[in-house]
């Protein structure tokens, strides 16, 4: 069988996720992001199209770097206002049977003890279809509004993330034994205290002495996503992530990143293909190439240049309003989103590029064409870079995903490179085919028995 491609839909609980301005398109439903029906309708579309999952981005700050203020982001609705991504998952799970959900949450702004409970709750309610997209946070505004003077240095953020995940692994994997709870009516106790263990964590950043508040869920640890393509981010991902999200704009950049991540995973004692790697990709399609090009031209007429620059200024950590339109954008290394600085801030793009060429395809690749043309391109990316699949950025919602479900996925299925039905089971089992739990080769497995030794 040909290699099966992974496709995630990429969205955010706001009116403008990536492509600024297109919320104004007459077919866009983005302004309904506040309505639960928007999310349940979207989930049904994605499950009809056999998407692997819905990957929900998030930020806890505002894009206020451009022109040194939040005005451009507010006018464009560029990731502000933004609602909590977790609160929409249960409703979507209730109207679907198979669709996975990757939810973004930063290790910099929430204590791991309370976060562990939130994710275990979602894993219970979704019957094991939830994943956590691990990010460290990059917006200065988020840091200030969480009581910090400035954003924590990049390397330190990943050091915190290392300990953060250690705490979570202890809670999720080791605090409750598999048979600690029983509902047999002959039992006199719901939970056996001898099989519930305090984790006794005393670290540099966190002190968590007690037990996990939740009994074991189907996956225990949710599927671990990670979006960080800097050198330090790749190392963290190779040690922890099961699905890594990259925003590489060319095959050469993506090929190097994929090879590097797989090598790092092997060095960490993991199978290099225990890490699924997905690249950001925009698809504009229709029944024919001509129809797709017309749709693209129409979308372009709705893009918002100031909103795009507000987003890019936040990702690059520099005020793009200071550059001339055709001047190379060269960004000094900083503590913001280092992967964007490395890939887009070295003078290879001008301000016009960010407004024009990158107004829609942003930080990844793009395909505009009919079903055969798009399928050809996706297969070429997989064959030439060893990537596992794609995070599909929407231009309008749900229209982008409807177009992909109606035109591209059937063509991929005809070629034998995309599933024709879902695998039963949890999200982890759907992705890897070996049950709901993390393998013994994963870092988290080291903590499965540590807490039992602590309590005894």
From TrEMBL:
Keywords: Flavoprotein, FMN, Monooxygenase, Oxidoreductase. The keyword Flavoprotein applies. InterPro entries: Diverse_substr_monoxygenases, Luciferase-like_dom, Luciferase-like_sf, NTA_MOA. Residues 437-456 have a biased composition (Basic and acidic residues). It comes from the Bacteria. FMN binds at residues 58, 104, 154, 158, 230. This is 5,10-methylene tetrahydromethanopterin reductase. Belongs to the NtaA/SnaA/DszA monooxygenase family. Residues 433-456 are annotated as: Disordered. Residues 25-383 form the Luciferase-like domain. One of its GO terms (molecular function) is monooxygenase activity.
